[in-house]
Design the sequence.
């Protein structure tokens, strides 16, 4: 079967091998994969979605997903950082409404230095902005631009980020909300190393604390009253859905590959043949293949022509299906390996822990199903 969104030809074999070799160490230590990201930069992949006029590849969503899927099979933490980089580089270039010279500077820095960008949105009290509510992070007018104070959590890639797209509200009588492009080496920015998670342990998804951080006036994106953001930008939504889905499908495909190798190599004395000869094992591998095939079909449908024609409700269902299929596929693979699958000597237990994180990405299943139900009921 064609491997869909895990096209390893999209990433140099030596780069994938280096990332895969480092993955277990970074997972065990909870250390940030600077070396893996440097390898991606050396291959030009951190600038994959930067416009060609700035020196990037100007890649399509489909191409970006293939790269993220391949890297996801080597190291999910590195792939998540990469997915956010590719999505937000595209967003800065095409949809963030930053002044052109600022957007171009972000793209050129990615080409030249491998500079990383991610959105910093989630807060301790607010949770995810997708569920509504004003952020506690405040942007105050200053003579030289803005001053931003706030506390962001789950800030993926924070030890390596050059820029944060910080979701904040103004201190005006009627607050407006939007993203501010904050250089994370600015005075008043501090990273609190709080990330200690069951999965994606190397993703550096720590807290970022901003204390009266000076931001130039031209680093503010579009600002609107909160109700003006109720409708999610469809391009941003489809990029997030596809790249996150491709990541975890890549993890599931790596688990499938491990289970296939194990089934061929494992020859119990009482069987006198490999596990691969057992109908039960063949059925399990077949169920995994089914889940991977469905995910590839959904990813192709969503990526299509950049997401044109997709609704927020349909993309929410795609996301939950992609996530659940990935988790279930890894669990099926683990059922073949038994104790071997749960041993830290083997990568499958890491795949399982990383796959569990698929469920917590926005939208979670309750939100996705409720939105789809309201759409069907025309409520």
Sequence:
């Amino acid at each position: 079967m064609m491997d869909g969104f895990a096209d390893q030809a999209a990433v140099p074999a030596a780069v994938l091998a280096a990332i895969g070799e480092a993955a277990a160490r970074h997972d065990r230590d909870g250390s940030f994969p600077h070396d893996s990201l440097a390898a991606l930069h050396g291959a030009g992949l951190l600038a994959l979605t930067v416009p060609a006029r700035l020196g990037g590849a100007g890649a399509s969503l489909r191409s970006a997903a293939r790269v993220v899927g391949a890297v996801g099979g080597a190291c999910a933490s590195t792939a998540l950082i990469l997915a956010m980089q590719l999505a937000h580089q595209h967003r800065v270039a095409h949809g963030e409404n930053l002044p052109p010279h600022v957007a171009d500077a972000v793209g050129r820095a990615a080409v030249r230095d491998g500079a990383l960008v991610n959105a910093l949105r989630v807060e301790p009290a607010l949770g995810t902005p997708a569920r509504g509510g004003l952020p506690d992070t405040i942007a105050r007018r200053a003579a030289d631009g803005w001053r931003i104070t706030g506390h962001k959590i789950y800030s993926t890639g924070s030890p390596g980020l050059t820029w944060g797209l910080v979701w904040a509200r103004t201190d005006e009588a009627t607050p407006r909300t939007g993203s501010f492009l904050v250089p994370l080496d600015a005075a008043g920015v501090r990273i609190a190393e709080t990330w200690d998670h069951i999965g994606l342990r190397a993703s550096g998804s720590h807290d970022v604390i901003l204390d009266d951080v000076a931001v130039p006036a031209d680093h503010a994106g579009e600002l609107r009253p909160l109700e003006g953001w109720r409708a999610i930008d469809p391009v941003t939504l489809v990029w997030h859905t596809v790249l996150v889905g491709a990541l975890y499908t890549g993890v599931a495909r790596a688990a499938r590959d491990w289970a296939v190798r194990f089934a061929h190599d494992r020859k119990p004395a009482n069987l006198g043949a490999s596990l691969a000869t057992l109908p039960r094992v063949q059925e399990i591998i077949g169920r995994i293949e089914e889940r991977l095939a469905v995910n590839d079909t959904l990813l192709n449908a969503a990526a299509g022509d950049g997401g044109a024609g997709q609704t927020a409700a349909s993309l929410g269902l795609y996301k939950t299906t992609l996530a659940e299929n990935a988790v279930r596929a890894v669990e099926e693979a683990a059922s073949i390996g038994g104790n071997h699958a749960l041993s830290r000597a083997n990568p499958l237990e890491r795949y399982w822990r990383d796959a569990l994180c698929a469920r917590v990405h926005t939208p979670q299943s309750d939100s996705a199903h409720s939105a789809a139900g309201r759409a069907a009921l025309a409520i």
